[in-house]
Write a structure and sequence with these properties.
It contains ten helices and 13 strands. The chain is an alpha+beta fold.
């Protein structure tokens, strides 16, 4: 990837003053609940710079990208997940890829969404519309990807991801995303979080191995889920919290879920990045049929320009190199 520069000096200085972008994985409630919190202020700004996005486009792809980052700690071994949303709204949808090595890349299907009237709120319904969300998971030894699709109509990206896990994975999951803009339209804070209630066969209690994970939840189980949900929904805007620099990620986790004795088990770097490079595209061009190369010469395509859709990087190659 050709890394796009964030040219706004004031924004760069603000980002430098924030805690590092990190994904923190934690467990709580005797291992019955797992989750992750991702501070992604630089992540969203890089995503925006790569694709040169406007405010609305940044809000949509930024939230989707933050959710995709949260999929990484759920991956097993070496895994690559492609997430596609295809909707009926004017944004048309998005494509994202999350890799177990710690990067996310992707794009909006329509990077210039028409806006016919001033936005009064961040209701994305008309821009996303009814659609379907597809996860395709690939492991190195898989002959074909494992693919699953659910219909979504919430027009809320975080809830769409939660619905997918509820329907496809049969796991009670909640997502929360937030992108905070200042009055000039800069992204000054961004973050995301997920929680997942594990089946009764998991956790650290000795009785776990003796419990049928599909049995009806008893009163204690329902009470746990209710209290966890209440704590999760009490979370203020993550983007605002990070932008104000009054608390850090550890404060957020321990403060929100104190009654469940959370333990942060791992910290990871997650970045917006792409594995494209000049060599890959040059080899592609060199292997084109001779007729296509001749057509490029006749059409005056010199240099030949290729734009990586996943990251917006622009590569230019003189015909003499091809």
């Amino acid at each position: 990837m050709i890394k796009a520069e964030i040219k706004d000096k004031e924004l760069r200085e603000h980002l430098d003053s924030l805690e590092a972008d990190k994904l923190r994985i934690f467990t709580m409630a005797d291992g019955r609940v797992r989750g992750a919190l991702f501070h992604g202020s630089r992540f969203v700004n890089q995503l925006r710079a790569q694709h040169n996005l406007g405010i609305l486009e940044t809000m949509i792809l930024g939230q989707a990208g933050l959710c995709a980052a949260l999929i990484i700690p759920m991956m097993k071994d070496r895994e690559h997940t492609v997430i596609k949303y295809e909707g009926t709204g004017s944004a048309e949808g998005y494509s994202l890829e999350a890799d177990s090595t710690g990067y996310v890349r992707g794009y909006l299907y329509n990077e210039h969404i028409p806006v016919t009237k001033p936005l009064e709120n961040w209701d994305l319904k008309e821009f996303l519309g009814v659609g379907n969300l597809t996860f395709s998971r690939v492991h190195p030894d898989d002959k074909y990807p494992q693919q699953s699709t659910v219909d979504v109509d919430d027009a809320n990206i975080a809830k769409d991801f939660a619905w997918y896990f509820s329907q496809s994975e049969q796991l009670k999951t909640a997502f929360n995303t937030s992108v905070q803009f200042d009055k000039q339209g800069r992204v000054i804070g961004a973050g995301s979080m997920y929680l997942q209630v594990m089946p009764k066969t998991g956790g650290t209690k000795v009785i776990g191995s003796q419990v049928d994970s599909h049995q009806e939840e008893d009163a204690d189980e329902e009470d746990l889920i209710r209290r966890v949900e209440n704590a999760f929904t009490a979370c203020p805007s993550l983007g605002q919290l990070y932008s104000e620099k009054t608390v850090d990620s550890e404060d957020i986790i321990l403060g929100l879920f104190r009654e469940f004795s959370p333990t942060i088990t791992l910290e990871r770097d997650i970045i917006f990045d792409c594995k494209c490079n000049e060599e890959i595209y040059l080899n592609y061009l060199k292997n084109l049929p001779a007729k296509e190369k001749e057509a490029m010469k006749k059409d005056g395509l010199d240099p030949v320009e290729i734009v990586c859709r996943n990251c917006g990087s622009v590569y230019r190659f003189p015909l003499s190199d091809i």
